[in-house]
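Same chain as my last thread, 302 residues:
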Amino acid sequence: MRESLPRRTVLAVPGSSDRFIEKSRSLPVDAVFLDLEDAVAPGAKAEARGRIVDALKDPVGWSAPCVTVRVNDWSSPWTVGDLTAVVGAAGDRIDAIVLPKVTGPDQVRALDLVLSQVEREAGWQPGRIALEAQIEEARGLLAVNQIAAASPRLVSLVFGPGDFMASMGMGTLSVGSQPDGYTADAFHHVLMSILVAARAHGVQAIDGPFVGIRDHEGFVASARKSAALGYDGKWVVHPDQIEAGNEIFSPSAAVVERARRIVDAYNQATSGAGGFTGAIEVDHEMVDEAGLKLAQSLLAKA
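reply #2:
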């Protein structure tokens, strides 16, 4: 399993905006992605590449420990150009490349191959830069297990709700919000499918954005749902979403303390001194090997 940096909050930053790039440098997110795709108009793609390279080379850097770049998808005419222009010039400052609209494993493998060539041409060790695959439509969801296994560079699967909602014909215009008139959770199946594939292949699962930047309660509700399922983080599109996102995707002190009690009590009970007991009671609940694994998983996340 490839080690990856935390991604509780991942800030979307338009690559065509110097103002947003500069503002992103000091924000307390785990990761930023400098965007060459949806946030950049077609006529501004080439210029945005140059802006991102200049930003990456700036010695000021980012307070976020993880800096990534989202290139354009393979159905566009810009993917290879994005990689050669940005990675070729500043790849030593990039932790990962985000590939959007992934519909199958071949697209991930193709990006891996091109990225390896760019790294070699620049004199860098191939494989250092990680990959993140964004699942944004039905074909990608059906192939998510194969996508998750497509490259050793892969560190996360990311849900892209906007394009997914459009591809499914969902009845709302607000990306990340539940469709009008639907009382259940319209995203449960897709979120669980991505999560299962991510966990099966040892990569992170990241929820996509909630674009209602003035709807704080809506963002919190959306984030809590995916965090409760086990997601590692969520994209944020506004600074006002950062604090809540970091908190929601961090186990609380009380939960961490209880997990420690469970681990300590179970280890004691199953030792010789504890009589090799296989099931115990902690906080009025039965704990066996399965409960131990759950506590250990939470402590690892914490």
